[in-house]
Automatic annotation (TrEMBL):
This is Bifunctional protein FolD. It comes from the Bacteria. PROSITE patterns: THF_DHG_CYH_2. It comes from Bacillus selenitireducens (strain ATCC 700615 / DSM 15326 / MLS10). NADP(+) binds at residues 165-167, 231. Keywords: Amino-acid biosynthesis, Histidine biosynthesis, Hydrolase, Methionine biosynthesis, Multifunctional enzyme, NADP, One-carbon metabolism, Oxidoreductase, Purine biosynthesis. The gene is folD.
Amino acid sequence: MSAEIISGKELAKSKREEMKKETARLKESGIVPGLAVILVGEDPASQSYVKAKQKACEETGILSEMDHVTTSISEEELLTKIENLNKADHIHGILVQLPLPDHISEKKVIETIDPEKDVDGFHPINIGRMMTGQQAFLPCTPFGIVEMIKSKNIDIQGKHVVVVGRSNIVGKPVGQLLLNEHATVTYCHSRTKNMQEYTRSADILIVAVGREHFIAGDDIKEGAVVIDVGVNRNKEGKLTGDVDFASAEQKASYLTPVPGGVGPMTITMLLHNTILSAKWKHNLNGF
């Protein structure tokens, strides 16, 4: 057997087409969804992400504001910038690109963003709302993963989901979102003993550890759905995932590629959250 590929690139494209129509309808009502991004320093990966986000905003009709500041900015100055954006009526989403310089507290930055504008879904209030199944901005990568699974009409209810990785950005929240969809969820991490026992029992396996080819075909149950969240650069400079694609493809029923898998969906769900924020602000839930 050979796995069916879940292309995040294709799904993102179709979702962005829908968003384009939605922003056009909102503009007819005088509402322009606005996203503000603050980028600190010259990290090449961060610059690349921010550029991709700006381009995606332009394509879908979202107003994009970018504030690129140097690493010499003080924590107080950065927090003041965020507080000003919290008050700005034309901005519906605020994103501070991580990582931040050592002298700036990531925790303080995230907690200063108004939860009603936290389109990254990292604020403790949004995390708490997500945990308890309330209306919330969902973290973009986990949200994108769930959308990818649903796009293939894969039944999640009652399935055994194994999440390899327990980061606050991907591992923990994706498990919670799938628990909210009535899956049975197991988390594996660096201290898990006999990890293969768990990965081989997974109906849906999500791998987010940041280690090239950490999971191979032998670690996968026949017919499992495998979502590869990893983005690693190998010795040749090529992007690779946390899953060995060639061997996994022979065992899985569905598999995401790297690149072109989860990555494009992360930005797409950020756009979705920004549009949602604009609608919630104007009480247009069913718009």
